[in-house]
């Protein structure tokens, strides 16, 4: 399940969150953030796959992803 | 029913089987012999095997049977049927309820017309000596037959198909009529204001119906033919011309249709003078003011011709509220309408003669470019974006996103292929996700009077997202989803601060290495 062996760019995640929150980010939060992001991606892709299957598309398309994005984001609203 | 169970029916029973046994017919014999076996079920089965009816007898006692024998058979059959029919209580009750109205009618019929017999159709069996019950059954059967006969009538739904053909012809005029009605109403609404200004132009109304032919002809007076008016545009602006031509032809049709419908047209004729005023009025100021407004005639003609197809409806409507002098405004509107297409057209085929219309276009271009910049203003030169706090931030590298997406797409059942479009959408979604995450984390941190986003904020967030609960700890989630290297640095959920500090240092070093 672990997506690949390569680590994600921790600094990038940290920068993104810092820019969005205008707060400092403590040392290891980015790991949890990335974990949350992984969960988000999982949900997103699952929903997109379902959506694309319902729409009779082959594979995951941008349309299905876009359709599902809002729902999934709402699900991950804190 | 009691005697059925007896082993020897022909010998023992004096009352019932007496007539049966008394009849010397061969038909009665086997039925009795069959009836004798002990259990009813077995008897039924054997009868079924012999091809007898469920009542245990041959349906009719036969021509040789005496009336007594027939009556005895009938009673026996009815009894058997009463016994052997499953759910007979329920059936009987239903039957009663069902037959009450009919029995009333039957009784009435017996009283009123005792001698009449039911009309026997060819389909019904000619049993004249039947009891009332059998007659009922026959009538029911006949009713059923009637229903079946009526069935084939239903598929005659094909009739509407023919009607459709008829409908098609009315449809076409109807559409155009509707369009005309809209236009006319719009024009008719405008009428009162216009009417007062210019009435001498009524003479133009005679040629009227081709609204914008008129405009085109008048505007470029040199152009004699309608086609000549249109085709140069086609040469100049290809894309626009297609649209314009289409519109032009539609309008031609509508005009023709209008002309065809003499009645309506005449009805409008009462109103038309005003209409004419309006249309002529719309055209006139353009003609008059165009020279003053636009020094170079060539470019103006082209631009006007380009916009012409819009004018009769849109331009006229727009001009309505202000007074005829607002040609400049009308031109501005036209520019707004055609400016996008013009921009494209100019990029495709720039015209040398169109020097004058350029200034507004350049302005529009500038504004549009500004709009683009504002819409994409988040993106800085290095492909980074600006958050709402004005801080630059990169987006997650597409490779990482794609890797995650493919993994999860595979696990979610579909093929792991993700088109570039889909990847773009996913990137957009993840950008939004991080934005939302940052907002939430900031809210939590601020609520705790901190200026630093902490682990606890993230844990709270995940709890609120219902990602973690009593069953799934964040650590379990991490174990499931994160590579081991990250797990090493994650062991924090409720750790003492000193421990976290140590691992934080290790993680920080790792951070710098990775990034």
TrEMBL record, chain A:
Keywords: Centromere, Chromosome, Kinetochore, Nucleus
GO cellular-component term (any): kinetochore
GO biological process terms held by the UniProt record: chromosome segregation; kinetochore assembly; mitotic cell cycle
An example molecular function term from Gene Ontology annotations: protein heterodimerization activity
Xref: InterPro entries: CENP-W/WIP1 (IPR052484), Histone-fold (IPR009072)
Mitochondrion recorded as keyword: no
Location in or out of the cell: Chromosome, Centromere, Kinetochore; Nucleus
Keyword Nucleus: yes
Main localization of the protein described in the UniProt heading: nucleus
Family the UniProt entry places it in: Belongs to the CENP-W/WIP1 family.
Protein name (database record): Transcription factor CBF/NF-Y/archaeal histone domain-containing protein
Organism: Rhypophila decipiens
Lineage start: Eukaryota, Fungi, Dikarya, Ascomycota, Pezizomycotina
TrEMBL record, chain B:
Coiled coil regions, renumbered to chain: none
Keywords tagged on the record: Chromosome, Nucleus
UniProt-annotated stretches for the region Disordered: 1-186, 288-391, 485-515
Gene3D superfamilies linked to this entry: Histone, subunit A (1.10.20.10)
InterPro entries on file: CENP-T/H4_C, Histone-fold
Low complexity bias spans: 113-131
Name this protein carries in UniProt: Centromere protein T
Organism, as annotated: Rhypophila decipiens
